[in-house]
Amino acid sequence: MNKVQKFVLIKITMAITFSMVLTIGNPAAFGIEYTNEKCGISIPYQKDWQVENNDYKAENLKSIITITPDPDDVLTQIYINIWDISHHGEKTIEYVSKIFTPVDSEEEIKTEVIQDNIIHVGDFSAQKLAYNDEFEGFKSYIMYINILAYDKVYQIELLAENQNKFDKYVPLVEELANSIKISKP
After folding, report:
1. Tens digit of pLDDT for each residue in 113-127?
2. pTM (2 d.p.)
3. How far apart (Å, rounded) are the C-alpha atoms in residues 64 and 20?
4. What angle do CA 19, 25, 28 make, to 5 degrees?
């Protein structure tokens, strides 16, 4: 390979690498956008994901959608929920962090917190919480990104059946959180 060919190969490699970096960090790379104007939320997703609207509503909780990134793996899912905390006296991210952080009970389920940080998602304060629950030798892995906005907690939840799948989908959930658009409902 001569110098010109090496130079061209290096330039092509750099262009591909730069293009991959732009695609990974670009919400438009998801392709499709879920919008719920009534809830004031818009979130992008990839066209090959299964996305189901949820109509589940309980006191102070509205489940918006369930996302299954891999249709062959229905045990690993991402949920988008909205918690109404308007009736709570305190509406700070520290308070949100306190109410969503699991407490390890000395009963049948053992909980191990992996990460609990205050972060920012766009203009909003948020909690990034990751933990696992163990019940009768079976572990499940959970991550929440709880975004505090307009007296509500916009929650992106990842539920994975094992550590490998959890590790695989955490960056995806973080990217979803960074691409979410929240407006006053």
Report:
1. 999 999 999 999 999
2. 0.81
3. 31
4. 90
